[in-house]
Amino acid sequence: MYAQMVKSTGEGVKTLDEMAPEERAFQEKVDQDIRIEPRDWMPEGYRKTLIRQIGQHAHSEIVGQLPEGNWITRAPTLERKMILLAKVQDEAGHGLYLYSAAETLGVSRDEMTEMLLSGKMKYSSIFNYPTLTWADIGAVGWLVDGAAIMNQVPLQRTSYGPYSRAMVRICKEESFHQRQGYDIMMKMAQGSEAQKRMAQDALNRFWYPSLMMFGPSDANSVHSEQSLAWKIKINTNDELRQKFVDQTVPQAEYLGLSVPDDTLAWNEDKGGYDYSEPDWDEFFDVLKGAGPANHDRLDARKQAWDDGAWVRDGLLAHSEKKHGAKVAAE
Amino acid sequence: MSKEWPLWEIFIRGQHGLSHRHVGSLHAPDAETAVKNARDVYTRRSEGVSIWVVEARHITATAPGDKGPIFEPSESKVYRHPTFYDIPDDVGHM
Ligand SMILES: [Fe+2]
Ligand SMILES: [Fe+2]
Hints:
The structure holds 2 protein chains of 2 kinds.
Chain A: H1 21-31, H2 44-63, H3 65-69, H4 78-103, H5 109-117, H6 134-155, H7 161-189, H8 193-212, H9 222-229, H10 237-255, E1 265-267, E2 272-274, H11 280-290, H12 294-307, H13 309-329
Antiparallel strand pairs in A: 1-2
Chain B: E1 7-13, E2 21-27, H1 31-42, E3 50-55, H2 67-71
Antiparallel strand pairs in B: 1-2, 1-3
Bound molecules: fe (ii) ion (2 copies).
């Protein structure tokens, strides 16, 4: 997802009896769906795991602007350009809501940025794939935002108040993203032969990376068991991936495009599609930094951060000077 | 690392005459910039007609541990709610 492979404490989930009174009171609140707020007592592992998860999610929103920003100047019409600008601007907003939520846990925004740039914090694997044609912008909105929505809708009920509120805002804005992407795909799929080929090619390249967004199966992972108990994860990775496949296959059929999976078949018994797993070796390589666009993405973030330093410092100096003048005049 | 911009809490009044409501926070070097950024971050879909910004360090809050002594006294005062009183149907709407 936008947060993949987030490690929690690495220990098994404690039973209520094994917990000290403070922790038991905390867990009982979580079990009763009472939100945990920034100044409430929380286990250190909960706080740390959330910083990792929300931070990674925030970084993904910000880095996710890059593959789409790539097409703003080359959008085929002025209307498409305005729509794409609005969408990319939303993603900046999503990053900001999430950074603010993470900051309530005692980490500063600049610290998180530094950790992204030093490679200590990650962002979603999906943004390490390039957007080669205009159809890719359609595929990103349809599939990538579509997969993100799958994960974000349940997270509106997550136990941490500021995170949950950020998710509510984000979900309100996301469905426009997916629909504008599908709208691009419809235009392409109903267009000339060349446009159709372009749409099919985009689906071919983005299908498996989109399935990877949910992360490898975590049915037996201690990290994910703990996150589920804390309600900072609501569904397993496989549950969400299955839902995504079931939702997306008919949408591809409507477009007249074929999902690049020969084994794809409706399974009456489970009421869902059987499908092929993505290549998990590729996934781990991309996470480690060997994806097609990892270097470009981080370089772009570094450059923006370094080139913006004098602006950040200058504006702060100006504000302090103004404030000083005001105090002197009083 | 250079010094970080201060944190501002953002309050927005929506279209329908309701009070300003806390919507989130952001960093900005000064109040004017905080208002401009709040416009871009929190009102992209006409969510508001008025923005307040307050530097986060100026906010005083109740402590989570004081919840009991501060808020529990009102729980026993059921007579403060209209539903406490039984008014016969014959009296009509009240
Ligand atoms: Fe987003
Ligand atoms: Fe989005």
